[in-house]
Specification:
- This protein is an alpha/beta fold.
- It has one domain: Rossmann fold.
- The protein contains nine helices and seven strands; from the N terminus they run E-H-H-H-H-H-E-H-E-E-H-E-H-E-H-E.
- Strands 4-3-2-1-5-6-7 form a seven-stranded mixed beta sheet.
- A hairpin with a 2-residue loop joins strand 3 and strand 4.
- The protein is globular, with a radius of gyration of 17 Å.
- InterPro entries: HAD-like_SerB, HAD-like_sf, HAD_hydro_SerB1, HAD_sf.
- Belongs to the HAD-like hydrolase superfamily. SerB family.
- It comes from Bordetella genomosp. 1.
- Pathway: Amino-acid biosynthesis; L-histidine biosynthesis; L-histidine from 5-phospho-alpha-D-ribose 1-diphosphate: step 8/9.
């Protein structure tokens, strides 16, 4: 066992007071880049409701969210994402989540953002937090276009455990090799990964996760000065 620690961070409603996946779809609808804007908003709301109830599947999310990527060229998407970062994401950054990440980085901990949201949306956000590794649901990319399908195991529910283990195996490590392993998350969907670390931290937790944390004696951490609406 190494004396080094590992710190894993969920992204949406954990480091950010919003859901980047939801906000990306809303941004595309609002700017006329998501087909029928009202239909896109309704579908976006429906998926968020299912997610908050713990009923959403990766396939349901991918059909809509990754379909938005498949409808446009990577060049267009990259330009729009810069607008999205400037208008939506960077203004939402708050001090305490950044300080938490910086504390772990300064301590020399191995750090990764582990999010169900696709890597196209989240890679620039993880970089903005200074986290060197992103484990996210990867959209399939073939012949210079997104296909609308998932590539590999989605980083969702039990899939987060699979993906973290795969990443560590590539480094010749397991979670058991660390003196302490932290995972920060707000969502009941992340209980599988919270259960396998030594330091599960329910962070800005949903009511369901807050109740589970109380039952199991997990640390609870509230980071935000304010939270956006649940559909955000």
């Amino acid at each position: 066992m190494t004396s080094r620690r590992i710190a894993l961070f969920d992204l949406d409603h954990t480091l950010l007071p919003l859901d980047s996946d939801y906000q990306w779809a809303d941004f595309l609808a609002r700017t006329g880049r998501a087909g029928d804007p009202e239909q896109a908003r309704r579908r976006n709301d429906d998926l968020m409701d299912q997610y908050n109830r713990g009923e959403l599947t990766a396939e349901q999310a991918a059909e809509f969210m990754l379909g938005l990527l498949a409808a446009h060229s990577p060049f267009e998407l990259a330009a729009w994402h810069e607008e999205f970062m400037a208008q939506v994401i960077r203004p939402a950054f708050q001090a305490r989540p950044r300080e938490l990440v910086e504390k772990h980085l300064a301590a020399g901990d191995l750090c990764a953002v582990v999010t169900a949201t696709n890597s196209f949306v989240t890679a620039p956000i993880a970089r903005a937090f200074g986290v060197p590794t992103l484990i996210a649901t990867d959209p399939q990319y073939v012949a210079g276009r997104y296909t609308g399908r998932i590539d590999g195991t989605p980083a969702f529910k039990e899939g987060k455990v699979v993906r973290v283990n795969q990443w560590l195996a590539g480094l010749g490590l397991t979670l058991a090799d660390f003196s302490e392993s932290y995972f920060y998350s707000d969502s009941v969907n992340d209980v599988p990964l919270l259960e396998v670390v030594t330091q599960p931290v329910a962070t800005n937790p949903s009511p369901r996760l807050r109740a589970i944390a109380a039952e199991r004696g997990w640390q609870v951490l509230d980071l935000f000065d304010h939270m956006e609406d649940a559909k955000s």
